[in-house]
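User: Batch of two.

Assistant: Item 1 of 2:
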Amino acid sequence: MSEPINALCHEIDSIKVKEVNTHVNRNSFQVDEIVDNLVNTYCGDLDKYMKQIDNILVNQTTPVSDIQLDDFTLNLPSLLYFTSAAQEALEIKEDVSKAIRNDVYNRVRDCAQGTVADKDTAAELQSQAETIVYIAYNRAYKKVKARVEAAYEMLNSIKKVMSRRIAEYNLASFDKNPEDRKHE
């Protein structure tokens, strides 16, 4: 039985590590830019509205008004409806990009010569662009999904605040009118 190969038995080439890191950062930046463009296309209106809510919550010195809460509860469901529909469209594009990537990969692999590993390597190299597109759609879908989920959490929190306020108003109203309780 052979000894396991210790990958770190030699000194780390810091120059090589920096080169690889630079390459990763450059390529990641490009993919991230594609993902951000997709997310902004599919989620832009929801993002803008959530930022408005955040600005109100962060910058306002008084509690959020009932009018503002009403505005939130009326607008968020509408934005979520359209963003959820866009999320589904994005998921379709993710599926199609995956199918295209697999098609290219399989065609190249079928035509490649050599060992199984040689065929896999050739297919992976020839389908890199399609893989990047698939990764971008996959990440964009996940980001949009996370934002939709966060917006639903915000909506649920707003509903809880409104319910609490309604209960407080009812209690305050009940306490102010002791005469009304005698007639019940």
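Item 2 of 2:
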Amino acid sequence: MTQIHIQRQQCLNSENCRDPKKNNSISRENQLFGIFFIAIAIAVALASILSEIAFLNRLSLYYNAVIWIGSFIVTFTSLLYNRRNILWSSFRNRIKNSIKWPIHAKIINGMCWAGPFAAIALLPSLFPYLILAGIGCGNVSTYLLLRRYRDINDKNNNNRNAAGHGQFIVGLISLTAIPIVFEVQTSMFIVREDIAVMLSRILISFAYAVGGIYAIKK
């Protein structure tokens, strides 16, 4: 009887036992963001391969734009169309959380996301590295700021579940991929710039796939 009493008391002290609906909601959100990350991974990989084919066949930039937009539309429609309302609700919660951050935190997060992408216009030769830096710094900074300001965030926020950790994994893999792309681009065997660009995109796809799988499995 003592052991049963202890187990019952542990359950009462557990947040999941006190609020099973919240636990189920977090579990669904983990799965949803996991599917969202995997959708990004598939879209990026598909568009990267097709755009490389278009480049080798010397097609105009118009086809490149159609490939990227079409890849995301097809992938997101296939995987997320029936979940679009729930996904949008989750994004609104994230936006509400970030609005509560201090102004300096918003500036840091905005610079981490927009800074590397804006630099592409000035340094187009560094495109493979800057896109990885943007994805990496943006995801890592968002995750860290959610943790830093978790006390002012909504109770059901992403830094407390696997979706937030999945986002951190995406950022970490993207940053780790920068020296890999540099090694490939400076290799004696591979000197074509388009290969380095495609590799950076494939590594971003891989990062989102790993983050998505983690969020779903966890």
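The two ends are 33 Å apart (CA to CA).
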